Structures are given as structure tokens and as C-alpha cells.
Amino acid sequence: MTDLLPPADEGLYEPLLRPAWRLGHLGQSLDGFIGTAGGRGDVINGAENLDHLHRLRALADAVVVGAGTVAADDPQLTVRRVPGRNPVRVVIDPRGALEPGHRLFQDGAAPTLQASLAPGRAPGLAERLTVAEREGTLSLADLVEQLAARGLARIFVEGGGVTVSRFLAAGQLDRLQLCVAPLLLGGGKRGLGLPPAGRMAEAWRAPCRCWRMGPDVLFDFDLAAQG
Ligand SMILES: NC(=O)c1ccc[n+]([C@@H]2O[C@H](COP(=O)([O-])OP(=O)(O)OC[C@H]3O[C@@H](n4cnc5c(N)ncnc54)[C@H](OP(=O)(O)O)[C@@H]3O)[C@@H](O)[C@H]2O)c1
């Protein structure tokens, strides 16, 4: 089936050569899970999608993850599988609760920002970025604005499900990529969570292209084209 789709290198990256974009990506099973319930560093997709993730990091000025992803996976968020420089790493950690021992706070591989609601000392080599509150959560509009003021306008939101969902709900993404692996998990970590549509006519839709990525299919939604 995937043979009918264009391979990812034929135009997928063109929009990402622009000076500003905000892209969210999640790798998920066919039944909508992004990881097993207790899994650490679960990799759902194939090698081609991992290469894609590293390419997105290389094209981005900043890579953003939620505190849940750092706590579960202890990711480095560096570029290792393709040529390119490491983006600035941004961790949304509203209460500054993450343990200081995580690799991205300690390894010095790239500048690292801890986005929190209150000023304070960031762990390890990281810098604290104090972000405004909005309706009880951290304001993503303010975060994006502060990153832009630092010249970080190409933003890759790498996960997890809560963080990508909040960027989407806040209207802070102009591209959403869901890479679906041909497997079923039956349960686990939820991917996107949106308010339920009452009727089919109210379903979330956006212009979409599909790309072949090894055994997986990447759904590439162009939210900016929605108008
Ligand atoms: N398959 C994939 O593509 C993929 C990618 C990345 C991660 N993962 C997996 O996903 C799981 C983690 O995902 P997750 O959804 O549980 O967590 P997450 O999105 O990584 O982090 C969620 C946390 O981030 C903070 N946060 C994010 N946006 C916020 C906002 N606007 N305001 C306030 N706080 C905000 C909150 O922290 P507080 O709770 O402190 O308020 C929230 O609980 C892990 O199992 C990881 O392995 C999968």
C-alpha cells in the first residue's frame, strides 16, 4: 500500500526551508497510542521516521518537549542520524519539577531552556525561561513569542501527546505530522487528545498529504493552508 505514496524526500522538506514554522509530530500506532503504558523510550516507527525526526531537529531552531517526555525517556534531542546542528532544546516544565540529572540539563550538547511559570534557578546547564500563565496552564502564545524574540522561529514540537495536543488546541501549529505505524497496541500512552466532535461535520480536518516512510505512513497536515 505504501508503494502508492511518494517517498518522503520528494518535497516533504520544502515548506521547512522557510524562515518561520511551528510543526508538531507524533509517531503512533494505528489505534492512536504513542507508547506503551510503562514504556521508556518506546520507538513505534521505523528507521526512516527516526531519520525524519533527526532531520526535523536539524532544520529547526528549537525543539520543544513536555516534562512527561523528559521524565519518561531522558532524551538528548540532538541531531545524530543526519548531518546538521543541534537545535536549542526547550522543556515545558511549568512547576520546575524535573530532576536535574536528565541528560539534556547536563550534557551541554546544545543550549537548553526550561520553560516554567515562575522564575527560579534552572537545573544543570539549562536556563530558566519564565512564561506567562493562561487559564491555569503555561501560555504557549507567550512561549512562542519569547522564542521568536531570541531568533528561534522554526519550532519543532516533538512530543509527547499532551504537549502536541495543547499546541494544536491553542492554534500554535502551522503543520501537524502524524506518522502511523502498521501495528496495534490496544492501550498505552494516548496521542492527540481533542474535545470530541459532536457530529461528523464538526470533525477536525485540514489539507493533508501522505508520505511513504518505510513501513509507516506520514500524514502531513498543512494547518496554515486552512485560512
Ligand atoms: N511517539 C512519539 O512521537 C512520542 C514523542 C514524544 C514522547 N512520547 C512518549 O509520550 C509520553 C509522554 O507524553 P505525555 O503526553 O505524557 O507528556 P508530555 O506531553 O511530554 O508532557 C506533558 C507535561 O508537559 C507539561 N506541559 C506541556 N504543555 C503545557 C502547557 N501549555 N501548560 C502547562 N504544562 C504543560 C505538563 O507538565 P506538568 O504535569 O508538570 O504540568 C504536562 O503534564 C512518554 O511515554 C514518551 O515516551 C512519544
Automatic annotation (TrEMBL):
Keywords: NADP, Oxidoreductase. One of its GO terms (molecular function) is 5-amino-6-(5-phosphoribosylamino)uracil reductase activity. InterPro entries: DHFR-like_dom_sf, RibDG_C, Riboflavin_Biosynth_HTPR. Pathway: Cofactor biosynthesis; riboflavin biosynthesis. Residues 27-190 form the Bacterial bifunctional deaminase-reductase C-terminal domain. It comes from the Bacteria. GO terms for biological process: riboflavin biosynthetic process. Pfam families: RibD_C. This is Riboflavin-specific deaminase C-terminal domain-containing protein. The lineage of its organism: Bacteria, Pseudomonadati, Pseudomonadota, Alphaproteobacteria, Rhodospirillales.
